[in-house]
Amino acid sequence: MRALNVPGVSIAVIDDYRIAWTGSWGVTTPEAGGQPVTAGTRFQAASIAKALTAVAVLRQSGDAGWRLDADINTTLKRWQLPRSEAQGEAAVTLRQLLSHTGGVTPGGFAGYPRGQALPGLVAILAGEAPAESPAARVLSAPGGEAAYSGLGYQLLQLALEDREGRDFNALMTDTVLAPMGMAHSGFFADLPEAMASDAARGHFGPHATPVEGGWRAHPELAAAGLWSTPSDLARFAIDVAEAYRGGAGRRLTPAQARALLTPQAEGMGLGVVVRGEGSHGYFAHSGGNRGYFAHVEMLADSGDGVALMINADAGQALASLLIAAVAQEQAWPLNDRAQLTPGRAQRLLAALDAARAPKRVLVAVPAGVLANYVGRYQLAPDMQFDITLADGVLQLRLADQPRFPLLPESPTRFFVEAVDAQVSFVPGPDGRATALVLHQGGRDQTAPRVD
């Protein structure tokens, strides 16, 4: 933890379909007001929200008669997904949205500073102010390749809310969280004040810089708005696994649980990552909001699993070590989970290198110089950088991804604090940039200016 600059970690280990033990280390934040992390400390679970949303949708497919292969628009009342040329005559279905194969605008959400006006669900889907993310549109043929789409899950949230006639946290608490015993979990754009004092604060970048305000707000509840603990995530995994093996009294019927874990495309089931035959019923999901990393995985056939939560987005490398240690100690039948594969080792070493690197020093760059860098730069035939200037800070956006601040360490070289990447601008004779160079992963990629 110290080597990777990880402030706090909490973990729950599952053995024989029960929580065998829990462990917590570190603090909610090393800043003033930090407290020891405990088994009850809440973290942002980020995209693991999608796995629980999938359970709610599958329950509706039984209780309310929803067909998973029905057009999503038949379940929506307040807003409709516009048709596009890309989809032709095909409908975008609930099953496709659950498996990220609906062709809907890909990508996740960057969140909002706490205290800022937050968009409602319809504004998020429509891409209207104050939403800062693109609109939900069908950009490729439904039923094709998997393309991870947070907006797809926002469509499912709208369907659930329209069906139930109440807010998402209330319906998820009644239909999923409370019945699974997830008493420390909830779907919140911002954590209620009563729960905030002892929650884990987020930390980003290789030097674990505290997230301003403690965390970013995520009004995109079904895609990224879950707060939880490892023990609660373990309870979710156990409930699904027990249903999968035919257990009664669970949130899903055995048939629904088998549908959840059936591979759809490129390793995706319905709301979870799966492996299919020979994987001992493996299912998993990770989550990574700014300042946090969370992961839960389960072997439904053997009853083995683990859930962990970390209050640093650099925690993925540590998570790999913890999962391998647990799988080895518990003698999981899925052997590769007990191994530190070359890919995991490479990520760990890269994270260690970043954590050991000297902390970058910001320099002042005149606004006139920054203005010379504003424009569009072509990195690849279908990929452009959009550089903008707001409140004296350059902002970088690649394609439809979120914007990231570019922080200056010289008049021409900038770095992105959230990821290990740097950008250099190549000025022309008049000072206006003619290209930028992306420095990332040991590679230098030049993107000529095109505007």
UniProtKB/TrEMBL annotation:
Domain Beta-lactamase-related residues, every copy: 5-320
InterPro entries attached to this UniProt entry: AmpC-like, Beta-lactam-related, Beta-lactam/transpept-like, Peptidase_S12_Pab87-rel_C
Annotated Peptidase S12 Pab87-related C-terminal domain residues: 361-439
Pfam family, one: DUF3471
Name by which UniProt lists this protein: Beta-lactamase-related domain-containing protein
Species: Arenimonas metalli CF5-1
